[in-house]
Structure formats: C-alpha cells, structure tokens
From TrEMBL:
InterPro entries: Aldolase_TIM, MJ0021-like, rSAM, rSAM_sf. Keywords: Iron, Iron-sulfur, Metal-binding, S-adenosyl-L-methionine. Transmembrane segments: none annotated. It comes from Candidatus Acidianus copahuensis. GO terms for molecular function: catalytic activity; iron-sulfur cluster binding; metal ion binding. It comes from the Archaea. Residues 32-137 form the Radical SAM core domain. CDD domains: Radical_SAM. The keyword Transcription does not apply. This is Radical SAM protein. Pfam families: Radical_SAM (PF04055).
Length: 337
C-alpha cells in the first residue's frame, strides 16, 4: 500500500532517514560547490551557482565552514544534507564539514550527501566513511554510473539512489528500481522534475511546462506516481518527493524552525515562515519593546499599530523579511490611514 499525499510525497514502506528529518525542517542545507563534472540537460541548479566554487549554508553564501555550525544552531538543525554541483569535486571540504558538524553536534547529527558518483572511488568512500557520513545518495545519470553505486555498498553508510522523473525515461527508471531492489540498495527517491530558468528552454522544447507549484513539470508527477504504483510491492523503500514539497513545504518548515530557535522577541511571524517587524521614530523611550538604532526603534508590528492608534507615533514602517535577513516587502502606515 502506498502512503502519503501525492501533493507532497508518496512512499511504499519507510521514508529514508534523511527525508524524515527534512520533513520536520531539521536539515541544514549545505551547498558545498557548484562545480560538477556532468552536464545534465535537466540540471535544476541555477545559473548563479552552477559551475562556481561557492559555499552556502542554507540560503547564506559564506567562505567559512564555521558559519555552517552557526547556521545549524540558528535553526536547531538535527542533521545536514550536502549538495551541489557534485560535492565530491571538493572532497577535502566535504570531509572538513562532516568532521566539524559531527564534532559539534555529535554522532546522531544525521548527514546525507548527493553525488552523481562520477568521482567516487575506494579512497573517497573510505574518507567519507571515516568522517561519519550516514547516507550517500547517487544520481546515476545512465546505467554506466551504477558501478559507482555498487562500490558504496561495501561501506557502512546507507546507500540510496535519487533520480528525477523525466517523462520519456519511464523504462530507465523502472530498470533503476529493479536494479536497486536486486542489489539491496536501501531506497530509491524519485523527484518531480523541476523546470528552472537554466533548464527551461530545453525542457519546454520537450513539451514540458511548469504546472505544479513553483517549478514542478507537467507529466513528471504522474509518471513518478505510476512508477510507484507499479512497484509498490518492491522490497526496498521507494519514495516520490514533489517539487511543491521541496520548494514550499521544506523551505517554509525550515524557516519556521529558524524563527522558533532564533527570532528576537519583537519579531512576529507569518504562516509562510516570514518575519514581520516595525520601525518607528519616537521621542518616548520604547526600549522595553525592542531595539534602538540610528534614533529609530525596531519593535513588534502589534505594538507599533497600537502606538499609531493612540497617536503616540506618526508613522510605522512595516518590514517583512525571510529569517536569514532578505527583505521581501516594506510599507508605511501613517495616522491618516
Ligand atoms: S549531476 Fe547533478 S549537479 Fe551535475 S549536472 Fe547533473 S543534475 Fe546538475
């Protein structure tokens, strides 16, 4: 029997551990480098990131691995997902990150990593195992890449496969599921194909359009769901993850979690995981309600509205921002309104 919700995700047995933690917004997203030795036509990585050797802790670009620890504390993370590009291109950095995260948060801090497998060999697998990697997810871009997946089976980390559901590739995906079952792979994750600015023209030329959430392609989720249905009795874990889930639910849950763990007392939040606060100028001492900077107070929007109603301030600047500081909107409310 299949479990879950087609809008979010469906699975036949159990969710992979990395996905379980992602569902509660508990995974720090480590984009370790945009470099990759492959050039998949459907690659969803943005132009700003692909091919560039840049590091992100969630949405924040950084040069310092210690920032990952700071960000993990900020969101109360109980694990991390290491992605790219192909992280194995920067294996030393990956090992440093895993080692530091494990040293700071302990062995139970669950870390999974994505790779096409192209650069995987015995040495890299040994180093990954020594560092404490819990789960490795391969994206075999063709059958020849399965040899890398097989190599990882000798190690203690969980081995999974993660592939996009590309309409037209039904037979390949069905082959992958059967291959994974016969080789004792722990899980196969099938992602809804995402149409992004970078891959849109190629995917559009194949008749694929965004029809689901922000980037989900038409036909992709139907294809993934029928693959799961046909293989529901498979002995390994099969899981379909929708792009709506990744773009909306995972991100929003992670934002709400960050707000819970590190927002300031005067910051209010919306169900979308954004922060609302207000800036006012006043001769009164409002320091009990917030913070003073450049002769203006940042306070809660509710308090600011009340002060405006009572005529104690002339206007209120309302700020909405994401929990990592990106401002989304700004508006002014004044006495006359
Ligand atoms: S392996 Fe992954 S990151 Fe590299 S090109 Fe393909 S989809 Fe993009």
């Amino acid at each position: 029997m299949l479990k879950g919700n087609p809008e979010i995700g469906v699975y036949n047995r159990e969710l992979p551990k990395g996905c379980e933690l992602c569902r509660v917004g508990g995974k720090l997203v480590v984009f370790v480098t945009g470099e990759c030795g492959d050039s998949c036509y459907y690659c969803p990585v943005s132009e700003n990131r692909f091919g560039k050797d840049i590091l992100y802790a969630n949405e924040k670009q950084t040069n310092d691995v210690l920032d990952l620890i700071y960000e993990a504390y900020r969101m109360g993370a109980n694990g991390a997902g290491i992605t790219g590009g192909d992280p194995i291109v920067r294996l030393d950095r990956v090992i440093e990150i895993i080692t530091k995260l494990k040293a700071e948060f302990g062995d139970d801090f669950h870390i999974h990593l994505y790779t096409s497998g192209r650069y995987i060999n015995q040495d890299s697998l040994e180093e990954l195992q020594r560092s404490g990697l819990d789960e490795i997810r391969f994206h075999p871009i063709n059958k020849e890449y399965l040899v890398y997946v097989e190599k990882a089976l000798k190690y203690s980390m969980d081995v999974g496969i993660e592939v996009p559901a590309i309409p037209g590739e039904e037979r390949y995906l069905d082959f992958i599921v059967k291959w994974a079952e016969n080789h004792g792979i722990k899980f196969v994750n099938i992602n809804e194909l995402e149409i992004t600015e970078r891959n849109a023209s190629r995917l559009n030329s194949m008749g694929l359009r965004v029809s689901h959430g922000l980037a989900g392609s038409n036909k992709s989720s139907d294809m993934a769901l029928s693959l799961l249905k046909n293989n529901k009795d498979c002995r390994i874990n099969l899981h379909y993850c929708s792009s709506v889930y990744k773009d909306v639910v995972e991100t929003r849950t992670r934002f709400l979690r960050t707000i819970k763990y590190s927002s300031k007392p005067y910051e209010e939040f919306t169900g979308e995981g954004t922060i609302i606060k207000a800036i006012v100028k006043s001769n009164m001492d409002l320091s009990q309600f917030g913070e003073l900077e450049n002769e203006k107070y940042t306070i809660s929007y509710s308090v600011a509205k009340e002060l405006l109603k009572q005529g104690k301030v002339d206007e209120v600047k309302v700020i909405e921002e994401l929990p990592y500081g990106l401002r989304i909107s700004e508006s002014v409310e004044s006495k006359s309104k």
